[in-house]
């Protein structure tokens, strides 16, 4: 049987770049060290290991990691908590925009 709940909402990094100007919530679920090595300016570091404690806005939450695997895990956790997650396919490996270090 087909389940709509099993379908993940996802965007490409190009789609994400367009959305960044609209004030979205973007969580970078990589480790703090990975985050410091280069992240999207608007991203808030919320490592996968602590994503279950996230208590932000319940509207759309964009999730990014290095390749898309950890953000997919975070997606499932946040969806179960009632959030509307959106996975960024390809993660930072596919991101071609500016990054901030530190």
Q: Quick recap of the structure?
A:
It comes from Loigolactobacillus coryniformis subsp. torquens DSM 20004 = KCTC 3535. With 102 residues, the chain is of the alpha/beta class.
Could you describe the 3D structure shown?
The protein is α/β, with parallel strands linked by helices. It has a single domain (4-94), classed as Rhodanese-like domain (Oxidized Rhodanese, domain 1), CATH 3.40.250. It is built from four helices and five strands. It has helices spanning 13-19, 32-37, 69-80, 91-94; strands at residues 10-11, 25-28, 44-45, 60-64, 84-88. Strand 4, helix 3 (69-80) and strand 5 (84-88) form a beta-alpha-beta unit. The protein is globular, with a radius of gyration of 13 Å. 30% of the residues are buried. This is Rhodanese. InterPro entries: GlpE_sulfurtransferase, Rhodanese-like_dom, Rhodanese-like_dom_sf. It comes from Loigolactobacillus coryniformis subsp. torquens DSM 20004 = KCTC 3535.
Helices and strands, with pairings:
Elements: E1 10-11, H1 13-19, E2 25-28, H2 32-37, E3 44-45, E4 60-64, H3 69-80, E5 84-88, H4 91-94
Parallel strand pairs: 1-5, 2-3, 2-4, 4-5
User: Structural class given helices, strands, pairing?
Assistant: alpha/beta
Tell me what portion of residues adopts beta-strand conformation: 15-25%
Cα end-to-end separation: 47 Å
Low-confidence stretches: 1-6
Name the CATH architecture. 3-Layer(aba) Sandwich
What characterizes the major β-sheet?
A: 5 strands, parallel
The name of the CATH superfamily reads Rhodanese-like domain
**What Rg is obtained from the alpha carbons, in whole angstroms?**
13 Å
* DSSP summary: helix tally: 4
Helix percent reads 25-40%
**CA-based shape:** globular
Numbering strands along the chain, what is their spatial order in the largest sheet? 1-5-4-2-3
Order of helices and strands: EHEHEEHEH
DSSP summary, beta strand count? 5
What's the number of structural domains?
Answer: 1
What is the CATH top level name?
Alpha Beta
Protein name: Rhodanese
Pfam families: Rhodanese
InterPro entries: GlpE_sulfurtransferase (IPR050229), Rhodanese-like_dom (IPR001763), Rhodanese-like_dom_sf (IPR036873)
